[in-house]
């Protein structure tokens, strides 16, 4: 079998192993997918400054994220339905992240629950919160994350209303889901996926089912979720959530400098420059293109993280050079999970780490903390 050398190799393997509707769920963006595509392609608009004859020995990728030590400035972004790529995907991804020394963020919309992941990991992970209309449910979820020892709350702000994804609608992944014999055929043609699935009993969205009022199974869950994302979410809610949680908070889904200023005023520990991986506002700029204005606005006030379109260590390096202090990946670890479960996520980490390390050396730097605009040749058509 051909070796797995880059993230694109993991993507191709996952495409072949995971039933089409679940692979498409990971691979989709909203409407025309222009923002999804720009997230990736805009990294090509940044060129690096090559340096020679500098000492490239003793390199370090170690850093901190909101004061917590990490083996490199990278975390796993929250991803719903994670366990659909590989049974118990949330637990396996959390274990791979723990072994690699970076944070895993569990989504509200995960199949394994906060408690499932806590029972199967040794170190604290992070929990991502969606604000639902039912504030008792939200308060209870925050308390459960606290009880499980989660080390940060990632509060997602860019999904008050759901962007439309054509692939999901065509595949019948709507609320309620419309499954046909064609889906059974799709699943039937993926025997190794079925085999892994058959080994787990965790098949419902365990953060929600059995906890939200009137949600006892998958079909009541899907209509509940569709109605529950809260279009009235405001900065006052952010204050309330921050207070109820009482620990480190990261605000996710900031793409605009004015919003970044509002976010910094809340006293949150970090923001994630993100457009939800191009799954919400199609036509919005890519995350990397949005980063410089946000750094100018609040770079000295709050830690700035970024996600969206990162597919290599070179992309991570470019984001760090433009001023982000840390990065996240979403789809790349889903492709890892879809390929080989925990081993696939571990492979993804190795690929990104090696690429970042060697690229940093070729830029003439030895410590990831020293990367900056001085390592860039040009960005978005402007010479640096
Ligand atoms: C997401 N994302 C996401 N974000 C969030 O806050 N809560 C969630 O439940 C989800 N669910 C989700 C599912 C899938 C399939 C994808 C691809 C993404 C967004 C995610 O956290 C992150 O912002 C993007 O994935 C980053 O872009 P890349 O790395 O996937 O390009």
Automatic annotation (TrEMBL):
Segment forming the signal sequence: none
Pfam (any one): FMN_dh
BP GO terms, sorted: aerobic respiration
Listed GO CC annotations: plasma membrane
Keywords, comma-separated and alphabetical: Flavoprotein, FMN, Oxidoreductase
Residue positions of the active site: 276 (proton acceptor)
Co-factor requirement: FMN
GO molecular function: FMN binding; L-lactate dehydrogenase (NAD+) activity
Binding site residues for FMN: 78-80, 107, 128, 130, 156, 252, 274, 307-311, 330-331
Tree of life domain: Bacteria
FMN hydroxy acid dehydrogenase domain residues: 1-381
InterPro entries found in the cross-reference section: Aldolase_TIM, Alpha-hydoxy_acid_DH_FMN, FMN-dep_DH, FMN_HAD, FMN_hydac_DH_AS
Gene3D superfamilies in UniProt: Aldolase class I (3.20.20.70)
CDD domains the UniProt entry points to: alpha_hydroxyacid_oxid_FMN
Keyword Iron-sulfur in record: no
Amino-acid positions noted as binding glyoxylate in the UniProt annotation, renumbered to this chain: 25, 165, 276, 279
Membership in a protein family: Belongs to the FMN-dependent alpha-hydroxy acid dehydrogenase family.
PANTHER family for the chain: 2-HYDROXYACID OXIDASE 1, S -2-HYDROXY-ACID OXIDASE-RELATED
Name of the protein described by the UniProt record: Alpha-hydroxy acid oxidase
């Amino acid at each position: 079998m051909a070796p797995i050398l880059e993230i694109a190799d993991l993507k191709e393997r996952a495409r072949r192993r995971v039933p089409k509707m679940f692979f498409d769920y990971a691979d989709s963006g909203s409407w025309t997918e222009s923002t999804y595509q720009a997230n990736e392609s805009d990294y090509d608009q940044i060129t690096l400054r090559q340096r020679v004859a500098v000492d490239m020995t003793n390199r370090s990728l170690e850093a901190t994220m909101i004061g917590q030590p990490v083996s490199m400035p990278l975390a796993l972004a929250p991803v719903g339905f994670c366990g659909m790529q590989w049974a118990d995907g949330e637990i396996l991804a959390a274990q791979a992240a723990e072994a690699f020394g970076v944070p895993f963020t569990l989504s509200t919309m995960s199949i394994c629950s906060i408690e499932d992941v806590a029972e199967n990991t040794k170190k604290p992970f992070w929990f991502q919160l969606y604000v639902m209309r039912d504030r008792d449910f939200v308060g209870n979820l925050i308390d459960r994350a606290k009880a499980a020892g989660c080390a940060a709350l990632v509060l997602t702000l860019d999904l008050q209303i759901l962007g439309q994804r054509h692939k999901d609608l065509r595949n019948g992944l709507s609320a309620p889901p419309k499954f046909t014999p064609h889906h059974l055929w799709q699943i039937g043609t993926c025997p190794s996926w079925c085999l892994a699935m058959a080994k787990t009993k965790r098949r419902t969205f365990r953060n929600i089912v059995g906890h939200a009022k009137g949600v006892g199974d998958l079909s009541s869950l899907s209509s509940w979720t569709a109605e529950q994302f809260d279009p009235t979410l405001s900065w006052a809610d952010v204050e309330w959530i921050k207070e109820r949680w009482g620990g480190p908070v990261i605000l996710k889904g900031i793409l605009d400098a004015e919003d970044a200023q509002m976010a910094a005023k809340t006293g949150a520990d970090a923001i994630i420059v993100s457009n939800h991986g191009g799954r919400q506002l199609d036509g919005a700029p890519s995350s990397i293109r949005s980063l410089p204005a946000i750094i100018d606005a609040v770079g000295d006030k709050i830690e700035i993280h970024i996600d969206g379109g990162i597919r290599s260590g070179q992309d991570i390096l470019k984001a760090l050079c433009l001023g982000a202090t840390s990065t996240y990946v979403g789809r790349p670890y889903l492709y890892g999970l879809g390929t080989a479960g925990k081993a696939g996520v571990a492979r993804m980490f190795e690929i990104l780490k090696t690429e970042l390390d060697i690229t940093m050396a070729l830029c003439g730097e030895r410590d990831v903390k020293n990367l900056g605009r001085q390592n860039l040749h040009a960005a978005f058509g402007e010479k640096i």
